[in-house]
Amino acid sequence: MNGFSVRATVLPLALLCAVLGTARGEPAQTPPAAPTPEPPRIADHVLRFDSTGHLLPWISWTTALEREMRFYQQCPSAHGYPLFVSETFLDGDWSPDPSRRDTIPATQNGLGVVSYLKMYARTRERAYLETARAMGDYLTRETLTPDGGAYPRFTRSTGTRGEFPLAADAGSQSDRAYEIEPDKGGIAGYALVRLFEASGERRYLEQALQNARVLTRNQQPGDDSHTPWPFRADYRTGAPRGAVSGNMTYILRLYDALERHGYREFAEPRRALWSWIERWQIPSAAADGALFAQFFEDHDAPANRTAWAPLNLARYLLEERAALDPHWRADAGTLIEFVRRNFTHLEFGVRVCHEQDEDQDAWGGVNSTYGAVLALYAKAVGSASLASEARQALNFTLYSIDEAGRPRDLFKRSSPGGWQEDAHTDVIHNYLDALEAFPEWAGGSKKSN
What we know:
By secondary structure, this protein is mainly α. It has helices at residues 13-23, 61-73, 83-86, 105-123, 126-142, 182-199, 202-218, 249-260, 267-285, 308-320, 328-343, 364-381, 384-398, 420-425, 428-437, and strands at residues 41-42, 45-46, 48-49, 55-56, 77-78, 81-82, 89-91, 102-103, 159-160, 179-180, 232-234, 240-241, 344-347, 350-353, 417-419.
């Protein structure tokens, strides 16, 4: 045969009847109209696009952020702390998820302090400073390792809900019982220096110094396959697990902050760390990005690269510019392009960022980080197209805030709540950074670029 199947000439019964009916002079049967598809929604908001297909905000950024901050100010307290400080998994009515006893105190509260201090600086509302202090108090009073071993009185990366303070074996998620993650001590330490600067309370500085001094004692030179600290370590013995820890930026920020306060003991550790980043880590982003593996507490695959770590390094370079790195423009571009190449995808036609090789979802923390860092880069290099992409990514996460100001960690979630850093604490500061670059984005403008 000529390659065509006999079945290709057989008409479906309904179509054959329609053809025969038409041949007899009877009117053809009009097929029923296809149902109109429902417009896409997030948190019950219909996604709105302008005439060129760019995603618009459902409400002005200012109004949405104000509603979310007011909602969090209503959070009930337990053991002297708002629930979202000591709990990681909460629903929209502040009820803890009974199936999740794990917590991530350092990331959740360290980035929460950063968010609340930036909101305090923007609004001068004292309540935001007081919430930042509650987070700082929790970090300094409830989350420390015992006073002994390789990482004494060091901020815990994970813990167990309902423990005040955390038990010695409170490690959870993918941490083992007695493990810490050194980079998370950097996040917490940097946040505590900033809190000391805003509040004048020296106890925050003292804990930041403790974290930094413990880090310097455990710092290694690093090379093309090892970061200066492992991803995890047994705080008792220092036994490492995971040769690569992608987030070196916040330890660098901690060293910088303490040097500014006159602690010159961190000058050499800081120089060595920056030298490793400059020589090994940034070039890694131009290749396979292997030195950006491992950041998230609930994963432990050694080759699992993340978007969060290179984005936060790019943010640091954009903030410091030529004072740190004469090649900041090229280096930040390399980091951002690595993320765009490996960790972005389309949702409803909008380019968004997912977390890591092992998780392809655009969680609120990483997607708002992407939008903020891309906005800073777009402003620095004068790119209208990248600014538009950044704004749309941030608009996308904005849709996860409902009318009452209740956010959700992932746009797919049917109800508010979830991981508190993805819903709130690692989100707010990203919008504020973007607004520093583009103040005009605060309103509900219908223009997307």
